[in-house]
């Protein structure tokens, strides 16, 4: 039987690309998103044997319910990928408090909750791997993204600390920090201007980030690390 992997935010963008690559490798997947219909469509596209679930990651009850469903239908989880994320770009002085809270709850608290739920299973199995999707913005900062940057920077500190907590249980925790990738989140950006600051001269594709995620899931001697996937980004605007 293939390994069981939960991909939160697996219905689109980087999360979907990760799910597609893991499915090719024979994993049994739980595709989790807020929109159940989209998650179901993605799961169907991946082939038979996969599960689609709806979940608001900022709700501990919903996260726990999702893991219970995975356990019943797929078995104990081996891999966890946290790709669910939102952004509400804007200068801090113009950012509404509710938009700050929404980003913190989804991007940071949500990852903490899914990791906590997954660890309960992984510790029993004495092994597992977690990859959290951060952002280059969380490492370098970017004007107009101070709140989003804070949530992604928080993921780095959280993941590195968690890696130290669970290493003795043979559970690995790492972060992938993408740069400018072709997703719905970057569709509004002025690509021609931004790609001048990228050594490879182009935006990345979701499947290229997925390759890094799967590498870290499978790499048995890497934990507490941040893998930057940005094409050689030199500047942040």
From TrEMBL:
GO molecular function: 3-oxoacyl-[acyl-carrier-protein] reductase (NADPH) activity; NADPH binding; NADPH dehydrogenase (quinone) activity; quinone binding
Domain Ketoreductase: 3-183
GO biological process, one term: doxorubicin metabolic process
Alphabetically ordered keywords of this record: Fatty acid biosynthesis, Fatty acid metabolism, Lipid biosynthesis, Lipid metabolism, Mitochondrion, NAD, NADP, Oxidoreductase
Family: Belongs to the short-chain dehydrogenases/reductases (SDR) family.
Cross-referenced SUPFAM superfamilies: NAD(P)-binding Rossmann-fold domains
One Pfam family matching this protein: adh_short_C2
The UniProt record lists the keyword Disulfide bond: no
Native organism taxonomy: Eukaryota, Metazoa, Chordata, Craniata, Vertebrata
SMART domains: PKS_KR (SM00822)
Pathway listed: Lipid metabolism; fatty acid biosynthesis
Keyword Nucleus attributed: no
Protein name per UniProt: 3-ketoacyl-[acyl-carrier-protein] reductase beta subunit
Compartments where found: Mitochondrion matrix
GO cellular component terms, A-Z: mitochondrial matrix; oxidoreductase complex
């Amino acid at each position: 039987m293939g390994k069981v992997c939960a991909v939160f935010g697996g219905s689109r963008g980087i999360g979907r690309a990760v799910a597609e690559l893991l499915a090719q490798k024979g994993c049994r997947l739980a595709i989790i998103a807020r929109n159940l219909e989209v998650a179901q469509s993605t799961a169907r596209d991946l082939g038979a044997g996969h599960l689609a679930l709806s979940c608001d990651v900022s709700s501990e009850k919903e996260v726990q319910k999702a893991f219970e469903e995975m356990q019943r239908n797929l078995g104990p989880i081996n891999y966890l990928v946290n790709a669910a994320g939102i952004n509400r770009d804007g200068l801090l002085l113009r950012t509404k408090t509710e938009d700050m809270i929404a980003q913190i709850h989804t991007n940071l608290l949500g990852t903490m909750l899914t990791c906590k739920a997954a660890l309960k299973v992984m510790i029993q199995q004495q092994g597992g791997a977690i990859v959290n999707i951060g952002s280059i913005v969380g490492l370098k900062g970017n004007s107009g993204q101070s709140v989003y940057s804070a949530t992604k920077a928080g993921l780095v500190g959280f993941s590195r600390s968690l890696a130290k907590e669970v290493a003795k249980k043979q559970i690995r925790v790492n972060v992938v920090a993408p740069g400018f990738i072709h997703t719905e989140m970057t569709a509004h950006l002025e690509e021609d201007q931004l790609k001048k600051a990228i050594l490879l001269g182009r935006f990345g594709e979701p499947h290229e980030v997925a390759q890094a995620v799967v590498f870290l899931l499978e790499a048995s001697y890497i934990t507490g690390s941040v893998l930057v996937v940005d094409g050689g980004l030199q500047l942040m605007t």
